[in-house]
Design a protein that fits this description.
By secondary structure, the protein is mainly α. 61% of the residues lie in helices and 4% in strands. Helix 8 crosses helix 12.
């Protein structure tokens, strides 16, 4: 049996991605079992009942998750931290979907406009990113594909992801205001509030930031960079965000991440700003 591939790039953008329902998945894939990268790949109805929408750690190593399951499964930040590598089966499974999801996004842009398409794939993904760090919730596999696409086409998404790491106690932004920041047009007031937030955080000396939070964030971003490597431009803002967080929290490899971003896009403004700050020894006040 083979996986049903006809018109896949259209079907992959089906709303079951954000509103999981078994019937939609089975219409897309049917029952199948084939080999993928040397591992037996299961995508039958029983497997979807067992795995789709669950944490990947629940599998307990019984079988490798299929590429379908990797796409629709939830991941904890702890699992991603411990299993982020080029050879990880869940990473390979998500890599498989990047071209199809990218093509589906472009078609969505052609049909509905760019801003609609970006919000369509990433509005809930951004909130799951926020909730992962604010409330220790999980993120879906497809979020790790959709967020890099959204960051490439709307840097407000990238900046909102950064704020969610820096503003650890929600002093400046909560879930609602962060969503408004990402998706609403930037008025002078919105831009001013962001500047004041970053300036206050940069000058803060009384409380050290949550380093563990930043380390988890960097590992998740590294997984995104690996997953999207078949389309390098999708990783530009991922590397820029890695550079910024690594610089702010003094985690190392700042220049490396800047170089990764700038090799792909020499005009990446965040990477250039971070590179300049790093080379001139400029650091947040908490480090002193």
């Amino acid at each position: 049996m083979e996986i049903v591939e006809d018109d896949l790039k259209t079907k992959i953008s089906h709303n079951c991605m954000d509103d999981f329902d078994m019937q939609s998945l089975m219409q897309i894939y049917g029952e199948s079992a084939n080999s993928f990268n040397g591992c037996l790949d299961f995508a039958g109805s029983e497997d979807f009942e067992s795995f789709a929408g669950r944490e990947i750690s629940d599998i307990n190593g019984n079988i490798y998750p299929s590429k379908e399951c990797s796409f629709f499964m939830t991941f904890s930040k702890e699992y991603i931290y411990n299993n982020c590598s080029d050879s990880a089966q869940w990473i390979k499974g998500l890599e498989y979907w990047v071209p199809a999801v990218s093509e589906a996004f472009i078609e969505n842009v052609d049909r509905n406009g760019k801003q609609y398409a970006i919000r369509d794939i990433a509005s809930r993904a951004l909130m799951r990113w926020y909730n992962m760090f604010a409330y220790d919730e999980k993120i879906f596999g497809y979020d790790l594909v959709n967020l890099p696409i959204a960051m490439l086409h709307n840097i407000n998404v990238r900046d909102a992801m950064l704020i969610s790491i820096l503003d650890e106690n929600q002093e400046w932004y909560d879930e609602k205001t962060l969503s408004e920041f990402a998706w609403c047009p930037h008025t002078p007031e919105v831009s001013r509030n962001l500047r004041h937030c970053l300036e206050a955080k940069f000058a803060q000396t009384n409380n050290k930031p949550d380093i563990k939070r930043a380390i988890f964030a960097c590992k998740i971003l590294k997984s995104m960079a690996i997953i999207t490597r078949s389309i390098p431009k999708l990783s530009v803002q991922v590397y820029a965000l890695l550079a910024y967080i690594s610089w702010w929290f003094r985690l190392g490899e700042v220049k490396y991440y800047c170089d990764c971003a700038l090799r792909i896009d020499p005009d990446c403004s965040m990477a250039k700003i971070v590179c300049g700050a790093f080379e001139n020894g400029l650091e947040p006040a908490w480090i002193e």
